[in-house]
Request: fold
Amino acid sequence: QVQLVESGGGAAQAGGSLRLSCAASIRTFSSYTMGWFRQAFGKEREFVAAISWSGGSTYYADSVKGRFTISRDNAKNTVYLQSNNLKPEDTAVYYCAASTYYHTSREEEYKYWGQGTQVTVSS
Reply:
């Protein structure tokens, strides 16, 4: 059974940093595109970042470009989201997800999802 478990969320002040991790119990982890999405209270879930199976290609939402960095360690079956210069509008539940599509930001193309981790940024 595939499981994605996020960790590293919490509270931060504006301008601060958090590093989110997502541990995946997928036997063929290195063959999946991994993505991060987020959902703020009362809003729809939105794409944040994605990374190709090899880690050689990354893709970001305009709202986080230059502040967030996605990376992965295929030996550890883990994907990371380094979030710097956090803003109050980054407050949301952050989800990691796995897709068999290459380089996609489309939520419907992600097959497996974690339960999410809360990030709260205060001003």
Notes: The chain has a mean pLDDT of 96. DSSP finds no helices and eleven strands in the chain. The first strand starts at residue 4 and ends at 7.
